[in-house]
Amino acid sequence: MKNNPLIPYVLIMVFGIGLIFFMSFEGAADKNSADGEGSGATAEISGEEVAQKNCISCHGGDLQGQGPAPAIAGLDAAHIQEVALNGQGAMPVILKTEAEAQAVAEYISGL
Ligand code: HEC
Fold first, then answer.
1. Which of 5, 88, 97, 110 could join 83 via S-S bond, C-beta 3.0 to 4.6 A?
2. Which string of b and e fits 54-86 if b means at least 16 CB within 10 Å?
3. What is the pLDDT along the chain (111 residues), one digit of tens a residue?
4. Which residue minimizes the CA distance to atom 2 of ligand 1?
5. How far is the CA of 71 from the centre of ligand 1 (A)?
6. What does each C-alpha distance from 109 to 9, 52, 106 come to in angstroms?
7. Which ligand 1 atom sits closest to the C-alpha of 67?
8. Which residue's CA is the nearest one to ligand 1's atom 42?
9. Which protein residue has the closest C-alpha to ligand 1 atom 40?
């Protein structure tokens, strides 16, 4: 019986599909490990970063006060957290999440 001339092409096709199939598993495994690292990084909130982004514009670069905004460095953490979440007098509500407020309060009260 004569060999079918299509056989080499069929073999290459099967090999290629198999390769794609196994490479997709490798990609999926990479994605899973990247997701794990990503969520770990976002769970860890930097109080310093939150302060740089949300507080220094009014309270000054060293949080020692500036214009109408008083010095807040070294204040009681519970008070800082409460004011950041609820505002006080001329200061508007700044932060929406308790986690951010807690991180920034710990950082500022430790200055
Ligand atoms: C829009 C300007 C502005 C921003 C931004 C701002 N503050 Fe204030 N903050 C003020 C002003 C003005 C006061 C004075 C409020 C008052 O008592 O009348 C104040 C007061 C405070 C007080 C009370 C101080 C005291 O002696 O009772 C704390 C604590 C405080 N801010 C923390 C923060 C933190 C933490 C952030 C960042 C998350 C922040 N503030 C961002 C303007 C600001």
1. 88
2. bbeebbbeebeeeeebeebbebebeebbebbbe
3. 567 888 889 999 999 999 999 988 887 777 666 554 444 444 688 999 999 999 999 999 999 999 999 999 999 999 999 999 999 999 999 999 999 999 999 999 999
4. 58
5. 9
6. 71, 15, 5
7. 12
8. 91
9. 55
49: number of CA atoms within 13 Å, CB side?
5
Say what the alpha-carbon torsion angle 11, 12, 17, 23 is, to the nearest 10 degrees. 120
Atom of ligand 1 nearest to the CA of 68: 12
Query: Residues 32, 22: contact at Cβ < 8 Å?
Result: no
Which residue in this structure is represented by tokens 């001339």? 5
